[in-house]
């Protein structure tokens, strides 16, 4: 197996385990209304969330490695496949039994990833204009505004919107990582506009996802996130960033991506805690019974 595919498999493992740990941390942290940047500061006091964040960092490093040799549509599919890892981890660690359909979902994800790995072609180098290198940062700032609006939408619709926005942000991180100037050096990263797009989009995505996880209906949030972070970056990579499908494997790539997405969506509920885990109340007085 080539190093890029090994790194991509590591992405799925890191992000899959991080989802479980971050869900535990978010559900145990004091909630708030609207979009609250202080939520991330409170989460930094949660050990499970911090471990999950460290795994996210490892997953990002592996994403940089994988994108050196693999097209964006393959790497994003492996990112979505983290839910298969979450499913197995939840079944073993949280003793959360999987239904037959969910085991089929795990199998669908694995089959889809194999097909995508076989269909990946060699990338073409694309030279971006200076203004194009700033687009991830501009999009990240715009995403922050959309997330602030989405956080005001109540109920299940609000959770789904936040999940989709988190997915867009994570997808934007993948796009910005794909456009980092090579060779990647410390000086090069500090002067590369795409690197700042990664920071902004990543922070907004973490905040949007944490807010969605805290409000419940994690299944909706995760399903929306998977679709958004897979489909849009894959299309942009193929259309504008030089990603290529191996000649004659277009149908296999399409079926593989579809299997990976459908399988991941079928496993979306595995980002959710058992019912006995309740989020902390927004107002301490709300936890006390009325006199």
SSE map:
Elements: H1 3-27, H2 38-43, H3 47-66, H4 72-80, H5 82-92, H6 100-119, H7 130-133, H8 135-150, H9 155-178, H10 186-190, H11 193-214, H12 218-240, H13 250-266
Helix pairs in contact: 1-3, 1-4, 1-5, 1-11, 4-6, 4-12, 4-13, 5-6, 6-13, 8-9, 8-11, 9-11, 9-12, 12-13
Provide a brief overview of the structure.
The chain is mainly α and 291 residues long. The protein is 69% helix and 0% strand. The termini are far apart.
What would your notes on this structure say?
With 291 residues, the chain is mainly α. The chain has one domain. It is built from 13 helices and no strands.
The ordered H/E elements are: HHHHHHHHHHHHH
Major sheet: none
- Overall SS class: mainly alpha
**Poorly predicted segments:** 272-291
Distance between the termini: 65 Å
Estimate the strand proportion. under 5%
Number of separate domains: 1
Number of helices, counting only DSSP H or I runs of 4 residues or more: 13
Mean pLDDT: 81
The radius of gyration over CA amounts to 19 Å
Shape summary: globular
- Tally of strands: 0
- Proportion of helical residues: 55-70%
Give structural attributes.
13 helices, mainly alpha
């Amino acid at each position: 197996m080539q190093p890029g595919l090994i790194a991509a498999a590591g992405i799925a493992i890191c992000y899959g385990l991080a989802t479980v740990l971050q869900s535990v941390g978010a559900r145990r942290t004091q909630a708030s209304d609207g979009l609250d940047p202080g939520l991330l500061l409170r989460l930094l006091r949660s050990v499970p969330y911090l471990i999950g964040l460290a795994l996210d960092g490892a997953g990002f490093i592996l994403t940089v490695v994988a994108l050196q040799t693999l097209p964006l549509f393959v790497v994003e599919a492996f990112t979505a496949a983290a839910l298969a890892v979450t499913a197995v981890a939840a079944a073993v660690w949280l003793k959360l039994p999987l239904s037959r359909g969910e085991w089929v979902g795990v199998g669908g994800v694995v089959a889809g990833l194999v097909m995508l790995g076989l269909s990946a072609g060699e990338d073409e180098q694309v030279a971006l204009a200076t203004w194009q290198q700033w687009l991830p940062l501009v999009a990240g700032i715009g995403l922050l505004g959309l997330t602030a609006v989405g956080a005001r939408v109540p109920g299940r619709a609000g959770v789904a919107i936040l999940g989709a926005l988190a997915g867009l942000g994570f997808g934007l991180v993948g796009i910005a990582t794909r456009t980092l100037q090579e060779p990647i050096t410390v000086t090069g990263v500090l002067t590369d506009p795409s690197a700042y797009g990664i920071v902004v989009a990543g922070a907004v995505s973490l905040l949007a996802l944490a807010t969605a996880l805290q409000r419940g209906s994690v299944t909706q949030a995760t399903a929306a996130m998977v679709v958004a972070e897979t489909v849009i970056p894959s299309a942009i990579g193929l259309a504008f960033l030089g990603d290529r499908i191996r000649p004659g494997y277009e149908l296999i790539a399409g079926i593989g991506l579809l299997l990976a997405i459908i399988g991941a969506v079928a496993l979306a509920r595995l980002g959710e805690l058992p019912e006995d885990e309740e989020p902390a109340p927004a107002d301490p007085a709300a936890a006390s019974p009325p006199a």
